[in-house]
Prior knowledge:
The chain is α+β, with helices and mostly antiparallel strands.
Amino acid sequence: MARRSALVGFAAVAAATAAGCAGGGSAHPRPVHRPVRAVDPSSTDAYASGGEPALLQVMAHPDDDLYFMNPDAEHLVRAGVPVVSVYVTAGEAIGKNWVPGMPKPVLDKAAYSAARHQGLRQAYATMLGLDAFTPWRTSVLDLPGGVRAETNVLTNGRRRAQLVFLNIAMLSPGQVRIPALWAEPGAVMRSLPATGSPCQDVSTYDHDTLVDVLAAIMDGCRPTVIHTLDPDPEFQAHDAAHPKDNDYGSCSDHRDHTPTALFTWKAMSQWVADVTRRERRAPRFTTLAFRGYYNQRWPYNLPPSVVEDKLRLVDAYGGDPRWECGNEAGCGDYGQGGGRALRSRKAWIRSTHHRYPGPQLALDTDRSGRLTAYGVLGTQAARWEETAPGSGRFAPPRNLGGGPLAPTLAQVTDAAGRTVLFGLRFARLEGQGGANTREIVALEQRSPGGAFGRWRGLGTPEARPVRGRRVGAPTAVATPDGRVHLFARTAAKGLATRVRSPGGGWGPWQDLGGASVQDGLSAVLDAEHRVHVFAAGHDTVHHWSQDAPGEPLTFQPLIGLPTPSHQPGVVPASDGSLTVVYRAPAAVRPVAYRFVPGSGGAARRSAVDAAAPHATPLREFDGYGAIGAGVLAARGGGDTVVLLGRATDGRVQIQQGLTNGAAPVRAPAGPLPVGTSALVAGVDQQVCVAGMGAGAAPWVWRSHPTSDV
């Protein structure tokens, strides 16, 4: 089946798989849980061949995608990647669609849900480049367990969007909410038909039914990119300075976002396991998870022009009671229209954060210059090898197993020349009172360039599973003395480490403390082979380092660095200096800060005085998001700092040098990057950038100083 046909034809697939999916159409929950069908970490089945790009997004509410998954989603859609957006709840909330100046309406949850659906149609029509009130084709999907759902489809040339409304009532009979459907055995919820919807059936969901429905949608549309919400939001202290607002409990997110993400990850794992068993090939897709109300709690990381792009779609979704859209229930979610998102102190629109930051690919090169890339494909670790040095083409991926894994891997080459990979595994993802745990895992080569051994669990820095779920994506660095230093952000938002000795044994987790930082760690070695770790805090860039090689890392505060909005790029130079590059909150242009770290007691007293003389504004490198950094080591000396980032339109750009004459070069038109790309800088002005494309295949761009497009 062609990809574009599959997007609107997966109802047939879903109906065919409904047989044997018990519980969906019955009001009585099953007394016995079925076994969890999940990815086998030891499975290394070959991957399915590549297909046309397709994006699947799963949200709890209408507008979660517009606030939290853009600009990533819009960039893909505008590039011609068809999207299927699934909304799990009806989004009926308090059931009143109202803004100041309007007469207060009567309670009507079905109408409010329908108005939000209309708002989404307006936003996606705008995203597709059409008039906001363009008519959509509406129909009903038959899904596993007797479930029925509304679907809307709109096409504009190569651009295509499909909206799927499961419409589970946010508050079902018996005061049951989505968190209970995830966690409590026997919980049952029902759908709330929206006013005017072609689907007026009331569907019944238990835990397994929702997993089956999401897995069936995945099986029907065969996405190459999946967007989810945050399955493990961070803890948030609520006080006068940090009011609780819409947060749930002690976390910085909505009560529906977290279980919706957990259901999505469980469905992904089940789908991969089922497809691999049925077809003897693992499905090929990449995943991005997005933070939610986290955006309110950390410095804003999007510049004004990108925020305006998000606002345009949110305003189309919010609509206006004066609009004539043809929907009697309402023309959008009025409380979100008219620029209100920009004026809200919650400011969700001003940032977009990935739950698992870092490049989608980890890159390595051999002596000939041939690339090897490691990433997570279909929730499992994968390895690609370039067919020949400089070819820019990769052989088919090799499945290294280890899943289900979060979307990013860390990779180092130890002193013996062996590759070591680190990932964050969803070790148990059961729900219904069962285990819900994470662990950091490692995979090591037995010999340089040789076969890999078995995945090894390294636990997390946290003793309690509820806190272990909040650990960050692993980062690592290898030192010439044979050690490998592993780092992860803790549930307390500090830094923890675990060190592999030269003999191969792992020491215990150690909490390095420090102040509150975001996930996204940058670890490097300086010219003296001391380890440095940098992370973005609320106030400045935070820093841990060794006084001398082989000694423990300690928190060594930096002096004079302004507030960062994202993970800093860090690059060491042969003269002993370190350069830290990042954007201030809401800034479009970054600044580079160069310093020479102290040694011994001087390092402990003050790692850096990054005053104005050491700051270099980058006046042309406009963009947003994390910045990668590397160094070109020219023969005969003379290091050149190389920067990698995204321009405001989402395209990849690099810049060689920090002088006033340096200017960014954009990658040629072609594959749009999914997530963050990676950089390798070598000798003789060779710069290589690689990333994951929308078709779940890596792309390569090698740039020279004269490159331009």
